[in-house]
């Protein structure tokens, strides 16, 4: 398995060269980061070079890094993460690209390269408000008709902003501000890596 | 010269052939589809957002509710992702149990699919037949997890508990007399494995019945052959996976190509289509059921002779046995920490894909080291398949749209998430 990943890494270095800003291998998966300016060109190389042969786009999603508490330092708030699969070579690759403007995130569309990206990009636009330059039909896809906001951003509350009910006086369905309070049953906690490690505790004592 | 305009038809979201809540805007020229625009999201529950505010373990039952006809396969992908991030080893017996239940799930899914697909296309009897067999498999689900559908049986680190030694029995009631009950309980006298083995023995006969009803049926072939043809190149472009990709003639199955669980230790074949039409996809899925039956048989044989643990002994991830919690201080602390804070998953990101009955179902998880996921993306196979609706339906008749929906095996729980 690792010999195969080495081969993939070499092929990436050979064909993409300086376009790869960062190459990481973890948990048996290879991921690369590319700059927003190189994104479209780099993905075209990944698809068209026979040695790499990424003929399927399996997944594309947005990520909002604004609350990220780990060691990894994200350059910007919004990223688009693409998972590619090569059927002839039987390997996968993760490509991450950061949108340079946090207020108005724009990334090139890859729909012309892989048609399957069409709905995935619509989804990332709907949920994160990331715009895809070159996408011909960037409509909302999962949220309600007339929905306001981008619900998967970290500053959007889980309970949302509005709730819908039938108003008997008005004789129709109305929207009103949410009446439920957000609650957290299990708080989010991060522990240091050695937390609960008996040996580590003994060393300190 | 009269003014000729295309006719726009609203299909669904409450149409019986729309498989749930699919709303489609169809632009028709006479009876021919010029453009199909599926509107999805009517079942959007924001699973991926909800998961961010739950601990890693609490999210397992959410996975059941994604593709609600292949519950355990969804859990499998999620558990694989968590195990990969946390670096947990799963005991071999648990791997075989997972393989067994993945294949049970595949048959469950395909039975529902062939029943509903035939129902949509006009063969009423199929649904009655397949639901008869589904009942047995649902009983297997119930025996192992207590729930007929939303099992929450796979857990990070293994499976919740070992296979039961006895099957639940039917009881005499106002509607069922002692003689009927005795006949119904006949194959439930042994363990779950005996019950499933009996099923695998009966299933090929049932399967032959489906073939007799459909495969050479003139109406069935008229409705399916050459409908929704997708070439292998287009199938890859459109992100097809699973039976949709194999129906187009691409031999690709994650169980063989990137094996997980115990798939590298069992023997089975991958059926592949030739023409890439709805009929080929039907044949591929039909054959998959028989192959699943083979895999179940092999898993049963292995599980009979290889007892062992079914849950990891890493108590940072899997809870210690209840008896130990009551007598051992360390086990009590582990239990408390697990039930209050949950699993602490090291920082990192991973993608775990499995061969779900509908295609490649993947979980992309990002952890920032907390007890909850930072971001979880669910890659649902149906999402990519439905996105290709426009291309597949274009130029076909209105009635063929129903065939294509059926042949894509659409379930809204996973598409809308």
Which architecture of chain A does the CATH hierarchy give at level 2? Answer: 2-Layer Sandwich
> Helix- and strand-based class of chain B?
mainly alpha
| Order of secondary-structure elements of chain B | EEEHHHHHEEHHHHHHHHHEEEHHHH
Find the CATH superfamily of chain A: NADH:ubiquinone oxidoreductase Nqo5 subunit
Described by strand count, sense and barrel closure, the largest sheet of chain B is: 3 strands, antiparallel
Largest interface here, residues on each chain? A-B, 47 and 58 residues
Distance between the termini of chain B: 49 Å
Amount of beta strand of chain A: 25-35%
Poorly predicted regions of chain B are: none
Count of discrete structural domains of chain A: 1
Per the principal axes of the C-alpha atoms, what is the gross shape of chain A?
Answer: flat
Short description:
Chain A is α/β, with parallel strands linked by helices and 205 residues long. Helices cover 21% and strands 28% of the residues of chain A.
Characterization of the model:
- The complex is a heterodimer of chains A (205) and B (417).
- In chain A, 32% of the residues are buried.
- Chain A is α/β, with parallel strands linked by helices and 205 residues long.
- Chain A is built from four helices and nine strands; from the N terminus they run H-E-E-H-E-E-E-E-H-E-E-E-H.
- Chain A has helices at residues 2-16, 39-48, 117-128, 198-204; strands at residues 20-26, 29-34, 56-64, 78-86, 91-98, 106-108, 131-133, 162-167, 172-177.
- Helices cover 21% and strands 28% of the residues of chain A.
- Chain A is flat and about 70 Å long.
- Chain A has a single domain, classed as 2-Layer Sandwich (Beta Polymerase, domain 2), CATH 3.30.460.
- Chain B has 417 residues and is mostly helical.
- The model of chain B has no long low-confidence stretch (mean pLDDT 89).
- At the A-B interface, strand 3 and helix 3 of A face helix 1, strand 6, strand 7, strand 8 and helix 15 of B.
């Amino acid at each position: 398995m690792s010999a195969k990943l080495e081969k993939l890494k070499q092929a990436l270095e050979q064909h993409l060269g300086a376009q790869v800003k960062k190459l990481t291998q973890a948990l048996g998966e290879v991921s690369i980061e590319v700059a927003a300016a190189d994104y479209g060109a780099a993905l075209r190389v990944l698809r068209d070079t026979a040695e790499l042969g990424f003929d399927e786009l399996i997944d594309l999603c947005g990520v909002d890094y604004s609350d990220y508490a780990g060691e990894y330092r994200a350059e910007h708030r919004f990223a688009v993460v693409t998972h590619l699969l090569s059927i002839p070579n039987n390997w996968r690759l993760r490509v991450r690209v950061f949108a340079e403007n946090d207020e108005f995130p724009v990334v090139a569309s890859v729909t012309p390269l892989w048609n399957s990206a069409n709905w995935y990009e619509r989804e990332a636009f709907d949920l994160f408000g990331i715009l895809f330059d070159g996408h011909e039909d960037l409509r909302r896809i999962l949220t309600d008709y007339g929905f306001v906001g981008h619900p998967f951003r970290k500053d959007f509350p889980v309970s949302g902003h509005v709730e819908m009910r039938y108003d008997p006086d008005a004789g129709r369905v109305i929207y009103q501000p949410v009446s439920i309070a957000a609650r957290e049953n299990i708080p989010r906690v991060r522990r240091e890596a050695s937390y609960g490690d008996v040996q580590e505790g003994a060393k300190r004592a | 010269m009269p003014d000729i305009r295309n006719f726009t038809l609203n299909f669904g979201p409450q149409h019986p052939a729309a498989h749930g809540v699919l709303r489609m805007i169809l632009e028709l020229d006479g009876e021919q589809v010029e453009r199909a625009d599926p509107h999805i999201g009517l079942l959007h529950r924001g699973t991926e957002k909800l998961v961010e505010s739950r601990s890693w373990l609490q999210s397992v039952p959410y996975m059941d509710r994604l593709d609600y006809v292949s519950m355990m396969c969804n859990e499998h992908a999620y558990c694989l992702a968590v195990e990969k991030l946390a670096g947990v080893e799963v005991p071999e017996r648990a791997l075989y149990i997972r393989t067994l239940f993945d294949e049970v799930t595949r048959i469950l899914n395909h039975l529902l699919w062939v029943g509903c697909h035939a129902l949509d296309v006009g063969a009423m009897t199929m649904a009655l037949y397949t639901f008869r067999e589904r009942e047995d498999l649902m009983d297997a689900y119930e025996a192992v997890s207590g729930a007929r559908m939303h099992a929450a049986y796979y857990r990070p680190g293994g499976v919740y508990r070992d296979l039961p030694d006895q099957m639940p029995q039917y009881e005499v009631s106002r509607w069922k007399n002692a003689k009927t009950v005795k006949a119904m309980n006949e194959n439930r006298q042994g363990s779950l494995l005996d019950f499933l083995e009996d099923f695998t023995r009966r299933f090929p006969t049932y399967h032959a019945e489906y073939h007799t009803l459909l495969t050479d049926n003139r109406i069935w072939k008229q409705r399916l052959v050459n409908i929704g043809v997708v070439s292998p190149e287009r199938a890859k472009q459109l992100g097809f996976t699973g039976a949709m990709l194999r129906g187009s003639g691409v031999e690709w199955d994650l169980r063989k190509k990137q094996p997980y669980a115990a798939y590298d230790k069992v023997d089975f074949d991958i059926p592949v289509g030739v023409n890439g039409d709805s009929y080929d996809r039907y044949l591929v899925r039909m054959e998959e059921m028989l192959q699943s039956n083979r895999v179940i048989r092999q898993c049963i044989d292995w599980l009979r002779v290889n007892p062992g643990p079914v849950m990891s002994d890493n108590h940072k991830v899997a809870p210690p046995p209840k008896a130990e919690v009551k007598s051992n201080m360390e086990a009590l602390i582990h239990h408390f920490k697990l039930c209050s804070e949950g699993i602490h998953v090291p920082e990192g990101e991973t993608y775990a894909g499995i061969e779900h009955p509908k295609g490649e179902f993947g979980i992309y998880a990002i952890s920032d080291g907390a007890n909850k996921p930072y971001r979880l993306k669910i890659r649902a196979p149906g999402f990519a398949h439905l996105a290709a609706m426009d291309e597949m339906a274009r130029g076909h008749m209105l009635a063929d749209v129903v065939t294509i929906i059926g042949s894509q095996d659409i379930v809204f729980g996973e598409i809308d998430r």
